[in-house]
Amino acid sequence: MIKKIALFLVLIMSFSILGGCGKKDTAPAENKNTELKTDYRFEQCGLAYSLPMQWLEQENVNLIPVSFVDTAGEIYAKVEYDYAPSENLDELNNIDSQIPVEELMIPIFTLLVVRDENVDSDTVQDEIDLYENCEELPLQDGFRFYYLTDYIGAVPKFTKNAEKIFDALKADLPLLRDSIETFVPDETVVKSQTEEDKKYLNFMSTTLDGDSITSTMFYDYDLTVVNFWASYCYPDINELDTLQSFYEQLKQKYPNVNFVQVIIDTPGEEAEQIVKKAQKEAGVTFTTIVPDQNMASWVIEHLQGLPTTIFVDNTGKPLSKKLEGVQDLGNYITTTESMLNEVKPKK
Length: 347
Description:
The protein is an alpha+beta fold. The protein has helices at 53-57, 89-92, 122-128, 160-171, 173-179, 187-197, 240-253, 269-282, 293-302, 329-343, and strands spanning 3-4, 40-42, 47-49, 62-69, 77-84, 106-115, 131-140, 143-151, 181-182, 204-207, 212-214, 223-229, 257-263, 287-290, 305-306, 308-313, 318-324.
Protein backbone atom coordinates (compact mmCIF):
# COMPACT_ATOMS: atom_id res chain seq x y z
CA MET A 1 0.00 0.00 0.00
CA ILE A 2 1.31 3.44 -0.87
CA LYS A 3 -0.08 6.82 0.02
CA LYS A 4 0.07 9.77 -2.36
CA ILE A 5 2.29 12.60 -1.18
CA ALA A 6 0.35 15.59 0.07
CA LEU A 7 1.29 18.80 -1.71
CA PHE A 8 1.32 20.85 1.47
CA LEU A 9 4.96 20.05 2.23
CA VAL A 10 6.09 22.51 4.85
CA LEU A 11 9.19 24.37 3.68
CA ILE A 12 11.82 25.68 6.09
CA MET A 13 11.92 29.48 6.14
CA SER A 14 14.04 30.94 3.37
CA PHE A 15 15.02 34.55 3.02
CA SER A 16 12.34 36.30 0.98
CA ILE A 17 13.79 38.45 -1.75
CA LEU A 18 12.46 41.88 -2.70
CA GLY A 19 14.41 44.66 -4.41
CA GLY A 20 15.28 48.02 -6.32
CA CYS A 21 17.28 51.35 -6.90
CA GLY A 22 16.20 54.66 -8.40
CA LYS A 23 17.23 55.43 -11.95
CA LYS A 24 20.09 57.83 -12.53
CA ASP A 25 20.36 60.38 -15.31
CA THR A 26 23.64 58.92 -16.51
CA ALA A 27 24.84 55.34 -16.25
CA PRO A 28 28.26 54.61 -14.76
CA ALA A 29 31.08 53.78 -17.11
CA GLU A 30 31.93 50.16 -17.75
CA ASN A 31 34.94 48.55 -16.05
CA LYS A 32 38.26 49.08 -17.73
CA ASN A 33 40.21 46.09 -19.01
CA THR A 34 42.35 45.97 -15.87
CA GLU A 35 41.07 43.25 -13.57
CA LEU A 36 41.10 43.81 -9.81
CA LYS A 37 42.63 41.21 -7.54
CA THR A 38 39.72 39.76 -5.55
CA ASP A 39 39.25 36.93 -3.07
CA TYR A 40 35.75 35.96 -4.17
CA ARG A 41 34.72 35.66 -7.81
CA PHE A 42 31.30 34.43 -8.94
CA GLU A 43 31.10 33.95 -12.70
CA GLN A 44 27.38 33.18 -12.53
CA CYS A 45 26.66 36.53 -10.81
CA GLY A 46 29.11 38.76 -12.67
CA LEU A 47 30.62 39.85 -9.36
CA ALA A 48 34.00 39.71 -7.66
CA TYR A 49 35.09 41.32 -4.38
CA SER A 50 37.28 41.01 -1.31
CA LEU A 51 36.16 41.26 2.31
CA PRO A 52 38.15 43.63 4.52
CA MET A 53 40.83 41.71 6.41
CA GLN A 54 39.67 43.29 9.66
CA TRP A 55 36.31 41.55 9.30
CA LEU A 56 37.99 38.17 9.24
CA GLU A 57 40.30 38.88 12.18
CA GLN A 58 37.99 40.60 14.67
CA GLU A 59 36.38 38.62 17.51
CA ASN A 60 32.60 38.22 17.86
CA VAL A 61 32.12 38.67 14.11
CA ASN A 62 29.99 36.00 12.46
CA LEU A 63 29.46 36.80 8.80
CA ILE A 64 26.47 35.02 7.32
CA PRO A 65 26.34 35.19 3.51
CA VAL A 66 22.96 34.82 1.81
CA SER A 67 22.95 34.53 -1.96
CA PHE A 68 20.95 33.27 -4.90
CA VAL A 69 20.82 33.36 -8.69
CA ASP A 70 17.49 33.24 -10.49
CA THR A 71 17.97 33.66 -14.23
CA ALA A 72 14.22 34.19 -14.73
CA GLY A 73 13.68 36.44 -11.71
CA GLU A 74 13.26 40.22 -11.63
CA ILE A 75 16.37 40.19 -9.44
CA TYR A 76 18.87 38.08 -11.36
CA ALA A 77 21.27 37.64 -8.43
CA LYS A 78 21.72 38.80 -4.86
CA VAL A 79 24.68 38.57 -2.51
CA GLU A 80 24.05 39.73 1.05
CA TYR A 81 26.33 39.58 4.08
CA ASP A 82 24.71 39.66 7.51
CA TYR A 83 26.37 40.23 10.87
CA ALA A 84 25.30 38.11 13.84
CA PRO A 85 27.07 38.46 17.20
CA SER A 86 28.13 35.23 18.89
CA GLU A 87 25.57 35.68 21.68
CA ASN A 88 22.74 35.41 19.10
CA LEU A 89 23.89 32.21 17.37
CA ASP A 90 22.05 29.82 19.70
CA GLU A 91 18.74 31.51 18.92
CA LEU A 92 19.53 31.57 15.20
CA ASN A 93 20.15 27.81 15.30
CA ASN A 94 17.06 27.11 17.41
CA ILE A 95 14.24 26.08 15.11
CA ASP A 96 11.72 26.71 17.92
CA SER A 97 12.95 30.24 18.65
CA GLN A 98 10.20 32.84 18.84
CA ILE A 99 12.61 35.70 18.06
CA PRO A 100 12.40 36.89 14.43
CA VAL A 101 15.59 36.36 12.42
CA GLU A 102 15.80 40.07 11.60
CA GLU A 103 16.18 40.78 15.34
CA LEU A 104 19.21 38.50 15.61
CA MET A 105 21.32 39.66 12.67
CA ILE A 106 21.52 42.61 10.29
CA PRO A 107 22.75 43.10 6.71
CA ILE A 108 26.11 44.83 6.37
CA PHE A 109 25.86 45.19 2.60
CA THR A 110 23.99 43.74 -0.35
CA LEU A 111 24.93 43.42 -4.02
CA LEU A 112 22.14 43.16 -6.59
CA VAL A 113 22.36 42.11 -10.22
CA VAL A 114 19.38 43.10 -12.38
CA ARG A 115 18.67 42.75 -16.07
CA ASP A 116 18.16 46.09 -17.84
CA GLU A 117 14.48 45.39 -18.50
CA ASN A 118 13.75 44.77 -14.80
CA VAL A 119 15.39 47.89 -13.34
CA ASP A 120 12.05 49.66 -12.77
CA SER A 121 10.20 46.66 -11.33
CA ASP A 122 8.54 46.90 -7.91
CA THR A 123 10.56 43.91 -6.73
CA VAL A 124 13.85 45.66 -7.43
CA GLN A 125 12.68 48.99 -6.00
CA ASP A 126 11.35 47.36 -2.82
CA GLU A 127 14.73 45.75 -2.15
CA ILE A 128 16.62 49.00 -2.57
CA ASP A 129 14.17 50.83 -0.34
CA LEU A 130 15.44 48.70 2.55
CA TYR A 131 18.74 50.59 2.44
CA GLU A 132 19.62 54.23 2.94
CA ASN A 133 22.38 54.18 0.34
CA CYS A 134 22.28 52.71 -3.15
CA GLU A 135 25.20 53.05 -5.55
CA GLU A 136 25.00 51.88 -9.14
CA LEU A 137 28.19 50.01 -10.05
CA PRO A 138 29.71 49.77 -13.54
CA LEU A 139 27.10 48.29 -15.86
CA GLN A 140 27.74 45.40 -18.22
CA ASP A 141 26.01 44.25 -21.38
CA GLY A 142 22.34 43.80 -20.45
CA PHE A 143 22.91 43.97 -16.66
CA ARG A 144 22.87 46.59 -13.90
CA PHE A 145 24.67 46.21 -10.57
CA TYR A 146 23.77 47.85 -7.26
CA TYR A 147 25.72 48.21 -4.02
CA LEU A 148 23.41 48.70 -1.02
CA THR A 149 24.51 49.82 2.45
CA ASP A 150 23.01 51.24 5.66
CA TYR A 151 20.08 48.89 6.15
CA ILE A 152 16.99 50.67 7.52
CA GLY A 153 14.79 47.64 8.26
CA ALA A 154 14.14 46.05 11.64
CA VAL A 155 16.45 46.98 14.52
CA PRO A 156 18.21 43.87 15.85
CA LYS A 157 18.59 42.90 19.51
CA PHE A 158 22.29 43.65 20.01
CA THR A 159 24.34 44.25 23.11
CA LYS A 160 26.35 47.46 23.40
CA ASN A 161 29.47 45.51 22.46
CA ALA A 162 27.77 44.04 19.38
CA GLU A 163 26.64 47.51 18.29
CA LYS A 164 30.22 48.76 18.63
CA ILE A 165 31.52 45.87 16.50
CA PHE A 166 28.86 46.46 13.85
CA ASP A 167 29.82 50.14 13.64
CA ALA A 168 33.46 49.06 13.14
CA LEU A 169 32.42 46.73 10.32
CA LYS A 170 30.52 49.55 8.61
CA ALA A 171 33.58 51.78 8.88
CA ASP A 172 35.48 49.29 6.69
CA LEU A 173 32.87 49.29 3.91
CA PRO A 174 34.94 51.65 1.70
CA LEU A 175 37.62 48.93 1.54
CA LEU A 176 35.02 46.46 0.31
CA ARG A 177 33.64 48.94 -2.22
CA ASP A 178 37.08 49.56 -3.71
CA SER A 179 37.48 45.82 -4.36
CA ILE A 180 34.20 45.22 -6.22
CA GLU A 181 34.43 44.22 -9.87
CA THR A 182 31.50 43.67 -12.23
CA PHE A 183 31.42 41.69 -15.47
CA VAL A 184 28.86 39.95 -17.67
CA PRO A 185 27.33 37.01 -15.74
CA ASP A 186 27.97 33.57 -17.22
CA GLU A 187 24.50 32.04 -17.39
CA THR A 188 25.88 28.75 -18.68
CA VAL A 189 27.52 28.28 -15.28
CA VAL A 190 24.13 28.64 -13.60
CA LYS A 191 22.46 26.09 -15.87
CA SER A 192 25.34 23.67 -15.55
CA GLN A 193 25.41 23.96 -11.75
CA THR A 194 21.63 23.59 -11.51
CA GLU A 195 21.69 20.39 -13.54
CA GLU A 196 24.59 19.04 -11.49
CA ASP A 197 22.90 19.87 -8.18
CA LYS A 198 19.77 17.97 -9.22
CA LYS A 199 21.80 14.76 -9.16
CA TYR A 200 22.40 15.06 -5.42
CA LEU A 201 20.25 15.07 -2.30
CA ASN A 202 21.50 18.26 -0.62
CA PHE A 203 20.06 19.61 2.61
CA MET A 204 20.91 21.60 5.72
CA SER A 205 18.35 21.02 8.42
CA THR A 206 17.65 19.47 11.83
CA THR A 207 16.63 16.12 13.23
CA LEU A 208 13.26 15.63 14.89
CA ASP A 209 15.11 16.08 18.20
CA GLY A 210 16.38 19.50 17.11
CA ASP A 211 20.00 18.61 16.35
CA SER A 212 21.68 20.09 13.27
CA ILE A 213 22.18 17.70 10.35
CA THR A 214 23.33 18.20 6.76
CA SER A 215 23.87 16.11 3.63
CA THR A 216 27.52 15.72 4.64
CA MET A 217 26.23 12.77 6.71
CA PHE A 218 26.31 10.76 3.49
CA TYR A 219 30.10 11.05 3.33
CA ASP A 220 30.53 8.90 6.45
CA TYR A 221 29.05 5.73 4.94
CA ASP A 222 29.43 3.69 1.77
CA LEU A 223 25.63 3.68 1.49
CA THR A 224 22.75 5.42 3.26
CA VAL A 225 19.22 4.09 3.11
CA VAL A 226 16.66 6.93 3.29
CA ASN A 227 13.00 6.23 4.02
CA PHE A 228 10.40 8.96 3.34
CA TRP A 229 7.22 8.95 5.43
CA ALA A 230 4.67 11.43 6.83
CA SER A 231 2.61 11.85 9.97
CA TYR A 232 -0.62 11.69 7.94
CA CYS A 233 0.23 8.09 6.99
CA TYR A 234 -0.16 7.04 10.63
CA PRO A 235 -1.67 4.73 11.74
CA ASP A 236 -2.89 3.20 8.45
CA ILE A 237 0.56 2.94 6.89
CA ASN A 238 3.13 2.28 9.58
CA GLU A 239 6.21 0.09 9.21
CA LEU A 240 8.29 1.59 12.01
CA ASP A 241 8.71 -1.80 13.75
CA THR A 242 10.19 -3.25 10.56
CA LEU A 243 12.42 -0.25 9.96
CA GLN A 244 13.76 -0.37 13.52
CA SER A 245 14.63 -4.06 13.08
CA PHE A 246 16.24 -3.22 9.74
CA TYR A 247 18.32 -0.48 11.37
CA GLU A 248 19.50 -2.80 14.15
CA GLN A 249 20.54 -5.48 11.66
CA LEU A 250 22.45 -2.94 9.61
CA LYS A 251 24.42 -1.86 12.67
CA GLN A 252 25.41 -5.45 13.34
CA LYS A 253 26.10 -6.72 9.80
CA TYR A 254 26.91 -3.60 7.79
CA PRO A 255 28.37 -0.78 9.93
CA ASN A 256 29.30 1.02 6.70
CA VAL A 257 25.58 1.41 5.87
CA ASN A 258 23.36 3.95 7.61
CA PHE A 259 19.58 4.27 7.79
CA VAL A 260 17.58 7.49 8.34
CA GLN A 261 13.97 8.52 7.92
CA VAL A 262 12.60 11.82 6.57
CA ILE A 263 9.18 13.05 7.70
CA ILE A 264 8.03 15.21 4.80
CA ASP A 265 5.24 17.15 6.57
CA THR A 266 7.49 18.53 9.29
CA PRO A 267 8.32 20.99 10.80
CA GLY A 268 4.97 21.40 12.53
CA GLU A 269 3.91 20.77 16.11
CA GLU A 270 1.00 18.45 15.35
CA ALA A 271 2.95 16.35 12.82
CA GLU A 272 5.94 16.07 15.13
CA GLN A 273 3.77 14.94 18.06
CA ILE A 274 2.16 12.21 15.92
CA VAL A 275 5.52 10.94 14.68
CA LYS A 276 7.10 10.96 18.13
CA LYS A 277 4.14 8.99 19.49
CA ALA A 278 4.46 6.42 16.70
CA GLN A 279 8.23 6.17 17.16
CA LYS A 280 7.86 5.65 20.91
CA GLU A 281 5.47 2.77 20.28
CA ALA A 282 8.03 1.12 17.97
CA GLY A 283 11.08 1.90 20.10
CA VAL A 284 12.72 3.84 17.26
CA THR A 285 16.38 4.77 17.73
CA PHE A 286 17.36 5.73 14.16
CA THR A 287 17.74 9.37 13.07
CA THR A 288 14.66 11.22 11.84
CA ILE A 289 15.15 14.28 9.62
CA VAL A 290 13.00 17.38 9.17
CA PRO A 291 13.29 18.42 5.48
CA ASP A 292 14.56 21.84 4.52
CA GLN A 293 13.47 23.63 1.35
CA ASN A 294 16.00 21.83 -0.87
CA MET A 295 14.92 18.40 0.30
CA ALA A 296 11.23 19.29 0.14
CA SER A 297 11.67 20.38 -3.49
CA TRP A 298 13.53 17.15 -4.23
CA VAL A 299 10.67 15.12 -2.74
CA ILE A 300 8.07 16.85 -4.90
CA GLU A 301 10.11 16.27 -8.04
CA HIS A 302 11.23 12.67 -7.44
CA LEU A 303 8.70 10.80 -5.28
CA GLN A 304 5.26 9.59 -6.30
CA GLY A 305 3.93 8.39 -2.96
CA LEU A 306 4.69 7.24 0.57
CA PRO A 307 6.41 5.38 1.98
CA THR A 308 9.33 5.40 -0.46
CA THR A 309 12.86 4.25 0.28
CA ILE A 310 15.93 5.30 -1.70
CA PHE A 311 19.65 4.50 -1.57
CA VAL A 312 22.31 7.24 -1.52
CA ASP A 313 26.04 6.79 -2.12
CA ASN A 314 28.85 8.47 -0.21
CA THR A 315 28.77 11.57 -2.43
CA GLY A 316 25.10 12.28 -1.69
CA LYS A 317 23.91 10.98 -5.05
CA PRO A 318 20.74 8.87 -4.99
CA LEU A 319 20.94 5.60 -6.91
CA SER A 320 18.28 4.69 -9.44
CA LYS A 321 16.72 1.96 -7.28
CA LYS A 322 13.64 2.86 -5.24
CA LEU A 323 11.40 0.78 -3.00
CA GLU A 324 7.86 2.11 -3.13
CA GLY A 325 5.30 1.13 -0.53
CA VAL A 326 5.63 -0.98 2.61
CA GLN A 327 8.32 -3.70 2.42
CA ASP A 328 9.15 -6.70 4.56
CA LEU A 329 12.44 -6.93 6.44
CA GLY A 330 13.90 -9.48 4.03
CA ASN A 331 13.38 -7.23 1.01
CA TYR A 332 15.01 -4.29 2.78
CA ILE A 333 18.06 -6.42 3.61
CA THR A 334 18.51 -8.08 0.21
CA THR A 335 17.99 -4.82 -1.72
CA THR A 336 20.47 -3.02 0.52
CA GLU A 337 23.05 -5.77 -0.02
CA SER A 338 22.56 -5.45 -3.77
CA MET A 339 22.96 -1.65 -3.65
CA LEU A 340 26.02 -1.95 -1.42
CA ASN A 341 27.70 -4.20 -3.98
CA GLU A 342 26.90 -1.60 -6.63
CA VAL A 343 28.65 1.24 -4.82
CA LYS A 344 31.60 -0.67 -3.37
CA PRO A 345 34.87 0.16 -5.13
CA LYS A 346 35.92 -2.56 -7.52
CA LYS A 347 39.15 -4.36 -6.54
